[in-house]
Design a protein that fits this description.
Layout lengths: L2 H23 L10 E6 L2 E7 L6 H8 L7 H11 L13 E6 L4
Antiparallel strand pairs: 1-2, 2-3
């Protein structure tokens, strides 16, 4: 084998090893870490949330808000406003939706 081919093969193997080590050294994030993203749009706090199997509009809203009492009609209206054309009763797992964050008075 010629010197050029040997150096090319050695370089290729070296880059492959470096790539594998780099991928393995990166910190793995869990699904929970990537599930919620909070935004502040037009004086309204909004959470961009990835839905999991079994989640409902109300269960997610209760999970992300700390109020003892939340108005169900207001929650449904706000969800419809933030997600036009989405059926609140048929959320698709692994899809992202916007949810309102209610601030305590």
């Amino acid at each position: 084998m010629s010197t050029f081919k040997r150096l090319s093969l050695l370089l290729l193997v070296g880059l492959l090893i470096i790539s594998v080590i780099d991928d393995l050294s990166k910190q793995q994030t869990t699904n929970e870490d990537n599930r919620i993203e909070v935004r502040n749009d037009k004086d309204v706090d909004i959470a961009h949330i990835k839905i999991e199997a079994g989640d409902t509009v109300l269960s997610v809203t209760e999970e992300i808000n700390t109020f003892d009492y939340l108005d169900i009609e207001q929650i449904m209206e706000d969800f419809a406003m933030l997600n036009p054309g989405v059926d609140a009763d048929s959320l698709v797992p692994s899809s992202f939706y916007y949810f309102p964050l209610y601030n305590e008075p």
